[in-house]
C-alpha cells in the first residue's frame, strides 16, 4: 500500500501505479493489478504455490532496491491471500502494518505482519494500549530523561556499558535512572517479566496519535501463498 503521488496515478482509471508498477516483477506486469484502498495504493500479483518462493524473493529484493533508489521514506508491507475471498482481509492487515510503521516512525523498508506482531496487537486494542501506556506516565512527569533512558535500554539489549555510551552518561547515572524507573512504574528493568511489560508499554506510548512517526509514504505489497486446485495466491 502506498500514499500515491499524483504522478504515479494510472491514467487508465486513475488508480494505483502506472502499468509498469514499481513493485511488480517484470514477468507479472501483464497480470498484476492496482487499486487505491484507504489512501494507499495496493498491488496484487497472482502466483501459484510452486512459484511462490521465487516470486516472493524477487519481489522483496525489487521492493527493497526500489525504496532505496527513491531516496524517500517509503515503506512496503507484504502479506498473503490464498484465494480471492481472502484479499480484503489481507489488504486490511497490510494497511494496519503500514499505519503502525508510520506511527512509530520506523525506517523505510520492507515489513511483514510477523515482523511487528506486538505493535499490531496494540494498535488493534486501543484500550489495552492506553492501559499499558499509562504505566509510563510517571516517567514523563518526572522531569528527567527517564523515557529516553528506557527506550535506549530496551533498544540496545540492556547492555549497561553500551546503553550508557549511547546516552552519553556514566554507567552509574544509568543505574540511578533505572532504579528511578523501577520506583516510578513498579516494574523492574532487570526482571524479564517486567521488561516485557515495559517494552509493550513503550510501544503503546509511541503508538498514540501525537507521537506519529515520519515514514510518510508506504507501499503495501503482499506475498503469495500458493493455492491448490488451480486457485491462485496473490502478492499485494
Largest sheet: 4 strands, antiparallel
* Percent of residues in beta strands: 5-15%
| Whole-angstrom Rg | 21 Å
Order of helices and strands: EEHEEHEHHHHHHHEE
As a percent range, the share of helical residues equals: 40-55%
Oligomer: single chain
First-last Cα distance: 8 Å
Q: Helix tally?
A: 9
What is the total tally of β strands?
7
Structural class: alpha/beta
Strand order of the largest sheet: 1-2-7-4
- Anisotropy-based shape: elongated
* Average pLDDT rating: 76
Low-confidence segments, given as residue ranges, are 6-21, 213-236
Number of domains: 2
Can you lay out the helices and strands and say which pair or pack?
Elements: E1 33-37, E2 40-47, H1 52-70, E3 74-78, E4 80-82, H2 87-104, E5 109-112, H3 117-124, H4 126-134, H5 137-141, H6 146-155, H7 160-167, H8 171-185, H9 192-206, E6 217-220, E7 233-235
Parallel strand pairs: 3-5, 3-6
Antiparallel strand pairs: 1-2, 2-7, 4-7
Helix pairs in contact: 4-9, 6-9, 7-8
Summary tags:
236 residues, alpha/beta, Arc Repressor Mutant, subunit A, 2 domains, four-stranded antiparallel sheet, three-stranded parallel sheet, 9 helices, elongated, disordered C terminus
What does this entry look like structurally?
With 236 residues, this protein is of the alpha/beta class. The chain folds into two domains: 6-122 and 214-235, no CATH class; 124-211, PucR C-terminal helix-turn-helix domain (Arc Repressor Mutant, subunit A, Orthogonal Bundle). Helices cover 45% and strands 14% of the residues. The protein has helices spanning 52-70, 87-104, 117-124, 126-134, 137-141, 146-155, 160-167, 171-185, 192-206, and strands spanning 33-37, 40-47, 74-78, 80-82, 109-112, 217-220, 233-235. Helix 4 (126-134) packs across helix 9 (192-206) and helix 6 packs across helix 9. The radius of gyration is 21 Å and the shape is elongated.
